[in-house]
Amino acid sequence: MLKDSYQALEYFKLLEIISNYAESPLGKEFCLSLRPSFSLDQIKYRLGLISEIREFLNTKGELSVGNISPADPILERAKRGYLLPEEILDIRILIETGISIREKILSEGKEYKTLYMLAKSEPDLSDLVRFIKDRISESGMINDSASSRLMEIRKKKKSCRIYIQKRLEEILSRLKLEGSHVTVIEGRYVIGISSGKRKSIKGLFHGYSNSKATSFIEPEEIVEENNLLRELEIEEKEEEIRILTEITERIRERKGDIIRIQEFLKKIDGICAIARFCDSLKCKVPEISEDTLDIKGARNPILEYIKGCVPVDLRLKKDKNLLIISGPNRGGKTVALKTLGLLCLMTQTGIHIPAEEGSRIKVFKKIMAEIGDDQDISLGMSTFSAHIEHLRTMIESADKDSLIIIDEPGMGTDPEEGAALSMAILDYLMKKNAYIAISTHLNKIKLYGLEKEGVISAYVEFDKEKRIPTYRLNYGSAGASMAFETALRLGIPEEILSNAKRYLDKDTLKLNSLIEKVDLLVRELEREKEKVKRLKEQYERRLKRLEEEKDVILEEKRKEAENLIRKAKREFWAVIDRIKREKKELKKAEKEFSDIARELKAEFEKEVVKKSYQGEIKEGSPVYHIRLRQKGKLVSYDPEKKKALISIGNIRFWTDIEDIQPAKEEKEKTSFSEERGESSYVPEINVIGHRVDEAIPKIDKAIDNAILNGNPGLKIIHGIGTGRLRKAIREYLKSVPYVKGIKTDSEAVTFVELK
Predict the structure, then answer these.
(1) Level-2 CATH architecture, domain 611-668
(2) Most CB within 10 Å of its CB: which of 27, 73, 276, 388?
(3) Higher per-residue confidence, 1 vs 338
């Protein structure tokens, strides 16, 4: 039943389409052997693997296996004897392809875990490839270096051949026979000569040309050399067979690994084919649901591949487990049913589906479909009998994990009885909690769908003006079969159709009229819903645009503010620079002025009449040095020499008594630096507990204040912690132009020395 269902849903036809995307016979075989899985873990694994391979191919490039030949027949022949060079070359190419793809995945695909593990588990046969390469050339010939004996034999062969050719050329030159030439017959060198002159050469006769105009003679002078050449050829063949046997034995030993690599390449080519197919149809990964089928914008993959199709929404769930689709002939009912079943089969096979993002699919253990006329004449079964036989199988197998698809149940018999039987079967299947989707033309089943709880009614749309189906699927009502309209479009005369309408009973006419009215109301509702949806989308787009504009404006203002801050900071540092330069220049001017003033006063005082010390000479008394214009203290006095020892600051020296005068005691004044607010005081800032983005602005401000106050440095207490704050602060200080250096005696504190 399952195989028949897959056939009815055109699952195998889909696999054939996918296999066209494979590069090798192995990949095609993989695609055609695919079957749905009923294991949730296996389904998720397959879907994930296809997701990874699609992304890998689109970002890292193709994983091309080329048109590799299957190894099975070659390995089978290896059981019975040695392999030919071309067969060995095929094995080598297969292994090398496997190694190349494996290495690419392992080096570039570490983020693709499933694909990476698939490649990692494969064996490495690099040693076998090297062994074959050393003995078989790229063109499939046995290398001279395959063995020392083979090399020796081939060297002798070459020398022998050269010798024979040289002797033959000498013979031809000596005889000077027109039209004669050297050729090889059955491995022996001979001279082709006109048959009329064959007796000119003594030797073995090897026959005529087709026209008998030319005779082939082996001169007696080279018979021995030809014999030697033949012996060498036999020896060469024996050695080649020995080498091929040796290689075959190595291949035979690694048969299991070779088969594993073949299966790896088969799978890679197969999943790449699936990925290419999915990309071409813009397929999406379905979400796996426990109890819901909600496929949005579903497209039949076969129709989409051939010519494209109209997407439809397909819905079924636990409490609404029967979908009834009605509507006109050739309107897309059967296609919708096939699409539903086929997309479920694709999901469980691990193939992404041609539908919109966010589509949900339940995993079924049985997917059963009965579509079309399945009359079997050989079994004496009518259409209805075959139909009932399929329905019986479905009834027996149905459970909550079954998807049952029936195209026109109750067909092939009396419509009244067929409808009644169908409704009873649907009741039974719904009680079994199976998921069911059917199509119908029977009015009683349409009414059944509109009245019964747990049923979803849908219909394929028909354009009455153009008298053609639109293939769109609408929900919420049933659809008229439009048999007369379809017949008219296909060429049945109107006279016949007018007469046919007279045969319709009144109930059918009323029902069709009612269905049409409901259809109009549903379509009107759908139009209103579409209008509301468009308005909502319009509003959301406008809101999004306003949000984006707001973000742009805020970003511009932020950048503008940052630029202003940077500009203000540059100007601030420029002002500080200028102040410092002016301060240095002022100090320099003051010093020059003081030096000049002292020199002038010193010169002036040389002319002043020295006066004797006016006052009591007492040790410790304050004195004023006239020349130096500095105050100090009298330490000691030598009356004989009229010299006084005075101290100014920390300096003591002897001076003439005439150079000093008594001075008044005054309170000690503050220094120039203190008057200016300058000192050796080092301020500190504590940023323990702050984040980096909080601490840096505070430190920046503290540095600015320290520079303005003339402080020589700054102490920053940041604590130890994880070290992140300390590292960030010290890195920042390196970029500040007015930081001369930093001292790091403690891990918890940083001392900043300012310029």
Answers:
(1) Roll (2.30)
(2) 27
(3) 338
Kind of pairing between the strands at 322-326 and 455-463: parallel
pTM of the model: 0.64
| Euclidean distance between CA atoms 206 and 191, whole angstroms | 10
Pick the CATH number of 2-125+254-280 from 1.10.1420, 1.10.10, 3.30.70, 1.10.3470: 1.10.1420
Sheet with 360-362: list strands edge to edge: 287-289, 360-362, 292-298, 312-317
Cβ neighbors of 51 (< 8 A, separation 6 or more) are 285, 352
CA 276/CA 407 separation, integer angstroms: 32
Task: State how far the Cα of 177 lies from the Cα of 180, in Å rounded to an integer.
Answer: 6
Type of residue at 672: F
Measured distance CA(184)–CA(186) in Å, rounded: 7
Each residue of 359-380: pLDDT tens digit?
Answer: 999 999 999 999 864 444 334 4
The rounded radius of gyration (Å) of the Cα atoms in the chain is 52
Q: Give the pLDDT of residue 539.
A: 84
Label the pairing between strands 630-638 and 643-648.
antiparallel
CA gap 215, 206 in Å, rounded: 8
Number of Cβ within a 10 Å radius of residue 612: 9
- The whole-angstrom separation of Cα 585 and Cα 590 is 9
680-754 belongs to CATH 2.40.50.100: no
Distance CA 205, CA 190 (A): 9
What fold characterizes domain 149-225? MutS, DNA mismatch repair protein; Chain A, domain 3 (1.10.1420)
- State the pLDDT at residue 664: 72
Report which of residues 149 and 623 the model is more confident about: 149
